Amino acid sequence: MKIVVLVGGLSPERDVSIASGTLISNALIEKGHDVLLLDLYLGIHNSTFSPVYTNNKSDYRFSYSVPEHEPDLESIKNSVNNKSSLIGEGVIELCKEADIVFLALHGSIGENGQLQAVLELNGIRYTGTNYIGSLLAMDKDLSKKIIRANNILTPDWKYICLNKEYTLDGINYPCVVKPCSCGSSVGVNIVGNGNQLKNAIELAKKYEDAILIEDKVEGREFSVGILNNTALPVIEIKPLSGFYDYKNKYQVGLTQEICPANISEDISNLLKEKALAVHDTLRLGFYSRIDFILDKHNNAFCLEANTLPGMTPTSLLPQEAKAIGISYNDLCERIVLER
Q1: Cβ distance 216 to 40 under 8 Å?
Q2: What are the pLDDT digits (tens) for 229-240?
Q3: Is the distance from CB of 2 to CB of 34 less than 8 angstroms?
Q4: Which residues of 206-244 are buried (b: 16+ CB within 10 A; e: fewer)?
């Protein structure tokens, strides 16, 4: 197959996306496919990747590591003269030539349904969840309302829009402050008092005006991948220090990830059941990943749903697939072939 792997974009998560996309490209090349790795925002002329399909599958490899800090998006915009379009020159045309587009994007247009809608309007096949499910999952306020309405636990929260009048009355401490539509723990902070809260809101404001202030549920953190309507083995996430923030997620060795998790069969089945319920409720696609906190009473609180889970060396979904004998290369090809 001729496959375009779309990465990057003008998103705070672009480095994570590029790291995912390089590995996905290598896996699909090894499976015998012709692959083009392409930056969604920079397009055909500005991308750092060679905009050609490869035929020399034994030698052609991509490599990228996630830096410790988030990318400078203004610098990236300046590199293309502050181009306002979020889709680079030649991207749609190249995608039309492919048999399928593998979306290795995270955040922003790549994960909120906008790109999915554009691709559908152009008759382009792509991997992952459609535009409806992508929209529902990416907006954390909306997704939490939907899953709570379907009797799935999620931490209490307050939604504020910074460009409208709002109050901070009734906030419970400690709490978690996060942008409403970012992933990869971008802009996320755990705070314990009012002064910290104001600082955390200012940080989150760098990414968007819509902010969630969520009660912090104490407990163990787990994630459950979904592949073809089947829940994968549960993985437990244990940062060596702090919480599961951007640095701890993507720098090797800073977090313990235990799969299968050291939990009873009953708890494992509970988490899998809730993950499938969230997946179905939000109308997600062939694969997803659902994150939970399990409190001391074994109540499973859903934190969020991920429609395009990370595929970096430290990512959770590939580890869960590996636990049941699905190699990384096979996982990537299944995602391509089953769409």
Answers
A1: no
A2: 999 999 999 877
A3: yes
A4: ebbebbbbbbbbebbbbbbbbbeeebbbbbbbebeeeeb
**What global pTM score does this model have?**
0.88
The C-alpha angle with vertex 208 and arms to 276 and 7, in degrees rounded to 5, equals: 60
User: Which amino acid would we find at residue 279?
Assistant: H
Cα(15)–Cα(60) distance, integer angstroms: 21
C-alpha 44, offset from chain centre: 24
E strands, 129-217, where? 157-161, 175-179, 189-191, 210-215
304 in helix, strand or coil? strand
**Residue 184 structure tokens:** 């990869």
Q: Give residue 52's pLDDT band: very low, low, confident or very high (50, 70, 90).
A: very low
Does residue 217 register a pLDDT over 60?
yes
| Mean pLDDT (the chain, rounded) | 87
